[in-house]
Amino acid sequence: MVKVNSKDGSVICTTGNENFSMVKVISNHYKVTTRVQLDRESRSSHVIVVVCEDQLNRSSHVEEGTEVGTFIFNAVATDLDLKENGEISYYTSPTHSGFRIDPVSGEVFTTMRQDREMRSQVTFEVIAQDGGIKRLKTSVTINITDINDNSPVFPRPEFSFYVSKRSLVGTDVGHVFAFDVDVGLNGP
Ligand SMILES: [Ca+2]
Ligand SMILES: [Ca+2]
Ligand SMILES: [Ca+2]
Question: Which residues belong to any copy of the Cadherin domain (predicted)?
């Protein structure tokens, strides 16, 4: 059993050994288990290196049209002990997602204005590396929230309805409608 001291409890532990895996029991407690049947006659001892890294935060949101260079969120649940001991740096993949991560702080910023009517969600990977060795890869999702940046439009230039001259007052003669590609209160 391995217990990890972490101020926010959000770490992921792995072994560098293909014969063993780390199974999370409860927060901060991992069990080392075998992946294969071990043979004492061929090998009587094994060295297991356990690596525990910052857990990455996986989702956030940004309003469409937000200016380039705006801070969105910190993708890294910081752990002061790990930060002091390790030389962990972060990068995103692909690089053209519209977001970039600060390699040291893990803060995510916009690199383009998003348009919710083009896409309402952006997913990219954040990779943590330690001294050039890839340690942890996590998918991060950013939801693009709507602003009212589209006016309603009528589907045709004019509507015409037939009304009988014998119609009573208050008779329903037809419906006029418009489209709006925004959503919720911003939309139709
Ligand atoms: Ca838009
Ligand atoms: Ca609208
Ligand atoms: Ca919109």
Answer: 54-154
